[in-house]
Amino acid sequence: MNRHFRTVAFLAFILCVVMLRPLAPQAVAATERALPDGNGAGAAASEAWPRASIVLPIAPGVTVERRSWLGSLGWMQLTVVRVDLSSSAVVTRPVLSESSLSVPEKPTVIAESNGLLAAVNGDFFDMGATGAPLSMVAAEGRVIRSPRVDPDFASIAITRDGQAVLGHWEWVGELASMDGSFTLPLAGLNEVSVPPDSAVLYTEEWTWSKVPDHADAGHIAIGDGIVMCVVPGYPFTAPSTYVVARGEAWRQLRQIEPGQEVVIRSELRPGFTRLEAAFSGKPVLVLDGEPAPDLARHATIGAAYPAPRSAAGITADGRTLILAVVDGRAQGARGATLEEMAHIMIELGAVSALNLDGGASSAVVVRDPISGALQLANRPSAGAERPVPYVVGVLPAMAEDGRAGGGETAGGEAAGEYEAGGQAVHGQPPGESSALDMHTDMDSGLGSGWSSAPSFIAVQVDAGDSVHVVPSLARAVADSVDFFTGDEIVCASGIPLQLKVVAFDSSMKRIPLQRAAKTVDAEYVEQEGGNSAQGESGARDVPADHDAMGSDVAAAAEAAFEHSEETQRTGGAEYLGIPGGPVWTVLHPKNLRHDGAAHVDAVWHPSADGTEVIFSPLPGSRTEITVVWEMPDGTRTNTVTFAVRCLPGSPAAPLGVLGEPAWTILDDFESGRPWSAASSSPEVLAAVSFVNAAPHAAAADRVIEALPQYPSGTALSLKFDFSSHEVTRAAYARPIRPIPLPPGTEAIGLWAWSDGNGHWLRATVTDSEGVKHPLDLARMDWLGWKFVTAALPDSLPESWLMGEVYLTQVYLVEFKPELSSAGAISFDGLSALAPAAQLVEESAQSDEDGLLLGLADPGATGTVITLDASEPIPWPLLRAELESFKLSDELELTVVLRDGSAVARPGLPVPVGQLSLAIGGSFDDAVAAELLLEMLADCVDGSTRVTLVQEDAASSKAGEARALYKGVLLIWRPGPEAVEESARGHGGQSGRSDQ
User: Fold this and answer.
1) 101 and 137 in contact (C-beta within 8 Å)?
2) Which residue in 62, 186, 626, 723 is a FRET match for 874, CA 20 to 30 A apart?
3) Cα distance between residue 78 and residue 80, in whole Å
4) Parallel, antiparallel, or unpaired for β 199-202 and 242-246?
5) In whole angstroms, what separates CA 205 from the centre of its chain?
6) Helix, strand, coil % (nearest 5) of the chain?
7) CA 401 to CA 114: how far, in whole Å?
8) Is residue 212 scored above 90 in pLDDT?
9) What is the DSSP string of 211-237?
10) Helices vs. strands in the chain: H and E counts, helices first
11) % of the chain surpassing 70 pLDDT
């Protein structure tokens, strides 16, 4: 397809979207329904924003899903836990903190101490006072907190046969003497307060120790049905069962004598004899598949404002419980209104739904099915979990006491650090004896031949000094908006990766995959470091031992080669193992596809059975990889898709002239770049969050000239607790993806807010060979803000001049035992001192051929997409067009935005690769600009040129300016109106450059 035809066709698509809505989006999976946009209404299919989704099984009948999508008002982040209540493998019920209603604790702590598979926060609670939930809680068939007398509150009850129902119940109880001479109505069970002239029953789940000040109150203690005492006032030490009464009820209660036999009767109305569990919230969000009326009236919980929300829903058959948490008040997560939350629950399949506690309470915890470790699967708005009185927990059915063997991994004690799921994990890297093996059942296995498919597969990626696992829930949560284009692993250049399929059975126990025999490629793995030459296998994966493998396997290898040739013609390469087993489909960079199979074989070495691969990605490339499990009959299941982006091994061609060294912002913490926390050991606590930098006054260091701007807007906070007795304690703040330093960087610096703790502030940079270099910034012995710096060491290789150095972490460390404080420090204006690159104002004649690796033919036919930025962009069609480009042979992609700008022009010269985007511009939609850049960056594979041209009338005086962002060449160019105006200003002579 030539570029003119493609442009006309795409404009026709846009016209169809405007005139013929709805239109089914090509880029959205058919099984996904359109989620609501930012205005709260369910989006039509043609208006659906492209979004990423990751779904993982946790246990039989239980899955967790993480979604990202863009509504009209901002990015949305959603985590969903689905529970099949009829599954015999799990039990779902409220789980208390320390078996108490009035001792709130963090959800991760509750989940860890009770061995939960998944947990979501529950009801609103009496925060700041008793800490107890405000409405009904039931567990193991017993009501332990009575329903609140408030029509806005409702409850979801689960029956013993796995049926869920949403409704309103009333708890009715009475205290009576065995002889019938005395009866006293009870107003509630474990209520947060006793109403005047009423009595309330308290049980062992109520442990609040504060004594209320009510002169008209008294209580009786009951043990084994016998009244132990009758005492004025509240109990100072709560007995296991007691009744507190006030006013007239207390005057009646005093008639009972110690030693008298009593009985307590209670029931729920309407009757509910099959109750197993129940939890509550307010208000009801969905009734009969429609949003509940008048949701906006619930002003006390900010109904009309986007906020973090938690909700529980029930499907039409009552058999599936949907627990959903929407992140909010964070970068890349705007939250939801109550109306939006109702639409979200409907789109997730709920016909009835209930709002749970939200805000900082919103939290979802799951046990990662691959590592077995607990994972906070959302981003709490406060940067840390809020303690709650209970969670809606999912437990293994064999451990109904709530203490199912969780928390310990099979690797034993910690053996250093490794990267898993984009976060630092302490312990032994996954491998033959690791956390990945904690579910291993050595008695089960597919064996050679693999006549049955595993229930779930994952891919372990060993990069030498770090191990990643995909799919990764941790990475999906931590990467936030950056995860939009899917699971992506970033690796250093020059290091071969070992990819290994990991399989699990229906109970999520690991299945050992036994390879049938070795191949020449498999032997490659065993050579020194996997860095030697491939050998003589050539393009075909020929077995090294024909006798051991048999003729069937050899034939399969031959068929694999023939099939891969066919697949390469459609844009990818497919690699088959023996019949029934893993099949890899790889979308290699286009320069490899152009140069033939021999070059592909130089980087991709699968074993004969497909369970393992040695992959040597090219520097600067992005490779998309998919593996599925194929049965002998050709059916395929268990799709795992991810990308590998290899950091550049050689510098990009400069876009301008280097000047005198100046401070350049690397991260001002306003763009939403995700950061994660790690610590030196489990005993050292660390957490990162975004905070407001404004309240702290900045004290400028006048010794340093031309400092980056003073702290303002958003800063990054690193919370730490060094109170453990270990010799070395460290808390790390790490960007999810390493931050490249500009070429020739001499030093790094940042604004640091200190509380005078006296600990060392350090940073780490990593060179092109993967060597880590620590930098000492300062000992934090001051109060307030201060700009601190550290020079890059002389030990860096010469590639430092080319920009092949990356900032990987900033951290606080302490070696002195006497310094054991806890607190928080903040960072802003993370910067590099480097020669500034002046942007080329007009470069119609500039040579860009060296901009991207391996661009074989700069004049090759490319895809040109022209959009009118004054109209809404048809995102599904645009994404379909971009996917088509990725599969094509074309090496150039240009997207032209006319009469508007998705990205505002930079006000000052910006160094190469360090562009701080003031996105939005005349597009007036920053989130749309961010989405467009993410989608374009997904097309950069190391051998393609991707350009975003913005024609903007406001750039008439600036000429043409260029910069590079995530591999995308950005060009700000005068629009036609600006050119005409400039021509008139020059006496009618055109000043327009060649476009």
Assistant:
1) yes
2) 626
3) 7
4) antiparallel
5) 35
6) 15, 35, 45
7) 8
8) no
9) ----TTEEEEEEETTEEEEEEES--SS
10) 13, 56
11) 70
CA distance 668 to 91: 46
Provide mean pLDDT across the span 688-710: 62
Q: Please tell me the distance from the alpha carbon of residue 57 to that of residue 471, in angstroms, as a whole number.
A: 11
Q: What is the CB neighbour count within 10 angstroms for residue 574?
A: 18
Phi-psi region of 970 (alpha: psi -120 to 50; beta: other; left: phi over 0): beta
Rounded to a whole number of angstroms, the CA Rg of the chain reads 31
Write the DSSP symbol of residue 617: P
DSSP SS3 for 384? coil
DSSP string, 452-517: S--SEEEEEEE-SS-EEEES-HHHHHHHGGGGGG--EEEE-TT--EEEEEEEE-TTSPEEPP--S-
Cα separation, 843 vs 937, whole angstroms: 23
Predicted local distance difference test score (pLDDT) of residue 268: 93
Helix (H, G, I), strand (E, B) or coil at 754: strand
Q: Residue 784: beta bridge partners?
A: 754
Q: Are 605 and 521 in contact (CB under 8 A)?
A: yes
User: Which is nearest to 750 in space by CA: 719, 780, 793?
Assistant: 780
* pTM of the full structure: 0.71
Q: Pick 311 or 534 by higher pLDDT.
A: 311
387 is written with which tokens?
């303690």
Tokens representing 782 are 């001051």
Q: Tell me which residue of 485, 476, 507 sits closest to 376, measured CA to CA.
A: 476
Predicted pLDDT at 903: 61
- What pLDDT was estimated at residue 771? 81
Distance between CA atoms of 792 and 746, rounded to whole angstroms? Answer: 6
Whether the CB-CB separation of 115 and 402 falls below 8 Å is answered with: yes
Does residue 383 have a pLDDT over 50? Answer: yes
- Residue 926 CA to residue 332 CA, distance in Å, equals 11
- For 750-777, the pLDDT digits (tens) are 999 998 888 999 999 987 777 888 999 9
Bridge pairing between strands 488-491 and 636-646: parallel
On the 0-12 / 13-18 / 19+ scale of CB atoms within 10 A, 728 is: exposed
φ/ψ of 447, rounded to 5, equals 70, 180
Report whether pLDDT(402) > 60. no
Cis bond leading into 909, ω under 30°?
no
> How far is CA 570 from its chain centroid?
32
Q: How far apart are CA 319 and CA 313, in angstroms?
A: 11
pLDDT number for residue 959 = 61
Helix (H) or strand (E) holding 274: none
pLDDT tens per residue, range 562-582:
433 344 334 467 776 666 789
- Dist CA 809 CA 688 (whole Å): 12
Q: Which of 67-76, 242-251, 867-876 has the highest mean pLDDT?
A: 242-251
Backbone angles phi, psi at 593, to 5 degrees: -65, -35
Dump the DSSP string for 142-157: EEEEPPPS-TT-EEEE
DSSP for 31-77 reads TPPPPB-TTSSBPPGGGPPP-EEEEEEEETTEEEEEEEEEETTEEEE
Closest CA to 92 of 474, 395, 318: 395
Q: Burial-class residue 650 by CB neighbours within 10 Å (0-12, 13-18, 19+).
A: middle
Q: What is the dihedral of CA 211, 213, 217, 220, to 10 degrees?
A: 10
Whether residue 22 is preceded by a cis peptide bond, meaning omega within 30 degrees of 0, is yes
Between CA 104 and CA 110 the distance in angstroms is 9
Contact of 186 with 175, CB cutoff 8 Å: yes
Q: How confident is the model at residue 939 (pLDDT cuts 50, 70, 90)?
A: very high
Category of 678 on φ-ψ map: left (φ > 0), alpha (ψ -120 to 50) or beta: beta
CA–CA gap between residue 595 and residue 604 (Å, rounded): 14
* CA–CA gap between residue 51 and residue 54 (Å, rounded): 10
